[in-house]
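Re: beginner question about structure tokens

> Can someone show what the tokenized structure looks like for a real chain? I only ever see the sequence side.

Sure, here's an example I had lying around. Input first:
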Amino acid sequence: MHFPSLIDVLALCTYCLLANVLDYNSYQFPLFRGRKPTSAELRLRTKFDYNALSPVKRRYFTYIRGIALNVIRWINAHYDVVSTKAARQISDEAPDTLGSIMCTYMGQQAHCLLNYKRKAQEQKLRGIDNCKAADVQRQLELLFVENDNIPNDFDFDLDLSAYDCFTFTDYSWRVVRKAQPNAFTGIYYFYLTSPME
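And the corresponding structure tokens:
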């Protein structure tokens, strides 16, 4: 019921959604990690997201993304967020959706991540082998743009210089329990098998 606690939960969910993007193996290839990829491997990466993640790890990332999305959907079905800005009358305003807060926060995290990678590349800082800003952008696009379960209005081609902080900064909201919760419709197909089976 406290907005900072809600942001903590959303931060954890965002980390779960971005786990694949943050994993070293997403930018490596199955044989001889760290070496320069062949042209065939690069084509496979572009076409099929070919990388050094094991099938078990891929399923695990899919599983935790599903759990994170279901947590967000469950909270959104039971709670609203309402602005506490003095300029607005709380009693007269319609509650905002939690989904819009989450979308804003996820977008901030994703844009900051790509902005940091672009800056590191411009400064020629040594990072993960085979991981350029374009590779991080591709992983983010696979997650946010080519995924029907996650909001897809992120634009990674714009100027990202304004995205220089991972911290959520607008705490002018309060959490309100819905008088009549919405029906919870989770993403069930993530749970057909456990990630360790």
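Each token stands for a local structural state, so reading them left to right follows the chain. The chain has five helices and two strands.
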